[in-house]
Amino acid sequence: MKSSLLVVAATTSCAHAFVPAPPATSRTSMALNMGLFDGVKEAFGGEGMGDISSERETPIDRWMGWNAKSDQPAEAMGSKEPVGFIDSMDAKNYITTSLAKPMGIVFEENDAEFGGIFVLEISEGSSAESNGEIRPGDQLVSVGAEKVFGMQFEQALGTIIDSTEATIDLVLFRGPAKFLYGPAGASQEWIDEFIKGEKVA
């Protein structure tokens, strides 16, 4: 009797040991329905990025237009011109005038990164003051038919001193050096054509 009970118990335990696990259909279908990046979307919001607080916002966030809190549409980098931009390829931003010597203009050298010279001040009672067209800050572009655009101080000033004309024709750009010589500045070809009178407003 004892031996038959042992056989039955052993048979029952073996049967339970080899019972197949229930099919994992629900798990498989769930895995198939979930996309590769759904977990990332859930972590960062439906579109992959959530609201970014002003404390956590970085320049990259603004550049990529990831600041979800902004009501304004994101604009591409470089779409705006610099503040106070003056177009050095627009003839309207140039002054052409003739002055008798001595002109009464004090010139100063631009920063080394730009080169060229600009009007620092105008002396009282001078021909430049009487003329009234030239202002401090104007950039000297040409003296007569000679281009002084980007020249060193001594070389550019020497062009005026060496002139034998009773009156000197000057062309000046009305704007800062960074807009004449910087990345947004006029090309050498444009300046050459403008001095020759081939460029019109």
Give a structural overview.
- With 201 residues, this protein is an alpha+beta fold.
- The chain has eight helices and six strands.
- A hairpin with a 2-residue loop joins strand 4 and strand 5 (146-147).
- Residues 2-15 have low confidence and may be disordered.
Give a quick precis of the structure:
With 201 residues, the protein is an alpha+beta fold. Helices cover 32% and strands 16% of the residues.
Write the layout of secondary structure elements.
Elements: H1 2-17, H2 25-33, H3 38-44, H4 59-64, E1 94-100, E2 105-109, E3 117-122, H5 127-131, E4 139-143, E5 146-147, H6 153-161, E6 167-173, H7 177-181, H8 188-195
Antiparallel strand pairs: 1-6, 2-3, 4-5, 4-6
List keywords for this structure.
201 residues, 6 strands, disordered N terminus, 32% helix, two-stranded antiparallel sheet, alpha+beta, single chain, four-stranded antiparallel β-sheet
Q: State the strand order across the main sheet.
A: 1-6-4-5
Radius of gyration from the alpha-carbon trace, in angstroms: 39 Å
Query: Which structural category fits the helices and strands?
Result: alpha+beta
* H/E element order: HHHHEEEHEEHEHH
Largest sheet: 4 strands, antiparallel
Kindly state the percentage of residues in helix.
25-40%
How would you sum up the global shape? Answer: elongated
Query: What count of helical segments does DSSP give?
Result: 8
What's the number of extended β-strand segments? 6
How widely separated are the two ends? Answer: 119 Å
Overall mean pLDDT: 76
Strand content: 15-25%
Low-confidence stretches: 2-15
